[in-house]
Amino acid sequence: MINVDETEIDKFSQLAHKWWDMSGEFKPLHEINPLRLGFIDERAAITGKQVLDVGCGGGILAESMASLGAAVTGIDLAKKSLKVAQLHSLESGVAVDYRCVAVEELAEESPASFDVVTCMEMLEHVPDPQSVVRSCASLVKPGGWVFFSTLNRNAKSYLLAVVGAEYVLNMLPRGTHEYARFLKPSELSRMARNAGLDMDAVRGMSYNPLTRIYSLGEDTAVNYLMACRRPE
């Protein structure tokens, strides 16, 4: 069985045409993208590297990594999102190889093929996040980097990421997130260890509703990034 929730695929497929609308539902992803990109490039120095973006959606992160000179492959199971990503790639002239394939399938097909693997805001949308983490670990070369981002599971994250972002500030469509699927950093780091990865760093991502500015820091209570490496 493919590790996918069809309800989640449908949810993002209905919004696919808005991926590159800077003032639409995906505005927060555009705003945090420079922070993600900096976190990744600071550690992995992606220029000239083979990079895989798992759950690439409309290609926001994938294109930005390709713009730095990485050879990027983006995979997703939402065909409409991939169509949008492909069209935008043609318009921007930034080449990305997009494929509709499950990460587990690609891991069997092409193990240890990438210098860097990224998986952003996807783990909380799949039935079996451990399977995704394991596949990402399999796809990266020994010595390579794997980056995850997801949402912590606690009262603060529920209030800010669900109630605040979806129902009060209307930053995200209602029903975007299912709180029970959020992952604590301890849970994600355990999944990474079980997959043979060494955790290198964890950084929290915070949003100030007054200044409307996102920043990286030590507070991992809501959204966080995790950098891991596969041992040589």
UniProtKB/TrEMBL annotation:
Q: Which UniProt keywords apply?
A: Methyltransferase, S-adenosyl-L-methionine, Transferase, Ubiquinone biosynthesis
Presence of the UniProt keyword S-adenosyl-L-methionine in the record? yes
* Top-level taxon of origin: Bacteria
Q: Which GO terms describe its molecular function?
A: 2-polyprenyl-6-hydroxyphenol methylase activity; 3-demethylubiquinol 3-O-methyltransferase activity; polyprenyldihydroxybenzoate methyltransferase activity
Which InterPro entries has this protein been placed in? SAM-dependent_MTases_sf (IPR029063), UbiG_MeTrfase (IPR010233)
Listed Pfam families: Methyltransf_23
Catalytic activity field: a 3-(all-trans-polyprenyl)benzene-1,2-diol + S-adenosyl-L-methionine = a 2-methoxy-6-(all-trans-polyprenyl)phenol + S-adenosyl-L-homocysteine + H(+); a 3-demethylubiquinol + S-adenosyl-L-methionine = a ubiquinol + S-adenosyl-L-homocysteine + H(+)
- Pathway note: Cofactor biosynthesis; ubiquinone biosynthesis
Please give the CDD domains that the UniProt record associates with this protein: AdoMet_MTases
Task: List its EC numbers.
Answer: 2.1.1.222, 2.1.1.64
Gene3D superfamilies hit by this protein? Vaccinia Virus protein VP39 (3.40.50.150)
Q: Which residues bind S-adenosyl-L-methionine?
A: R36, G55, D76, M120
Is S-adenosyl-L-methionine among this UniProt entry's keywords? yes
Q: What family does the database annotate?
A: Belongs to the methyltransferase superfamily. UbiG/COQ3 family.
Functional summary from the UniProt entry: O-methyltransferase that catalyzes the 2 O-methylation steps in the ubiquinone biosynthetic pathway.
What's the protein called, per UniProt? Ubiquinone biosynthesis O-methyltransferase
**Which species does the entry assign this protein to?**
Chromobacterium rhizoryzae
